[in-house]
Amino acid sequence: MRSMPRVEVRDLVKEYPGVRALGGVSLSFEAGEVHGVIGENGAGKSTLMKILAGVERGSSGDVLVGGVGVEFRGVQDAMRAGVAMIHQELNLVDDLSVAENLFLGREGVGLINRRAQEAEAGRWLQEVCAEFGADRMVGSLSLAEKQLVEIAKAVSTGAEVLIMDEPTAVLSVREKTALFDLIRRLKGEGRTVILISHLLGELIGNCDRISVLRDGEFVGTVDAGAVDESSLAAMMVGRELGEMYPEIPECGGEVVFEVGFFWENLRRKP
To answer: What is this structure's pTM?
Structure first.
């Protein structure tokens, strides 16, 4: 018997003035899985994820978390439901410490105990295998380290669903390996990790399932181990790649016109 999805959307529609970004999308994300979402630019993948994270609201349709219908009015609603998104444009303040960034907006009232805050932040940094201290200024961190701060921040809120938008776009090979090791750890803890990426090979190698969107419509979900890059690309564009770039036959007919020594003749003075 299949378990209840951790997150599900049913007939989700998102319309902007003159644009239908999502046209009735239905798909689900399971607990303890890494789930890739792909599509060409304008396919609707970022719009879908922003709705799941409370950044935007759908025009119609349903979002369910743990089988219960929800209506997120903002990011805080999504976080309270256990959904957090790590954007490609990281949302951190360089002039604050790691600890201050982790608890920004969640400081509570009264005096802040910096020592206790840094100690708690240190525990969350250990959770994501960070090798820097909570007292470090965020502006001194590399992009990969800043990404770890964002992941630690999401995990510290109790997020069971982590949405990552193009997480490897600016990482080195070593940093990518470390990130995917962490993602597998999060999966092993029962969390759901949703990856938006255009790197098909990375998704095939690191995801359990991959869902494809095209022109705001849901195309399908496949097991990552049962597809290759060519078949995924064909699902994205709606036709085989060979149809997009047909082979041009060599011309074998009789020569009817030929130009020779054209440039040298042009250079000669009359």
So the answer is: 0.83
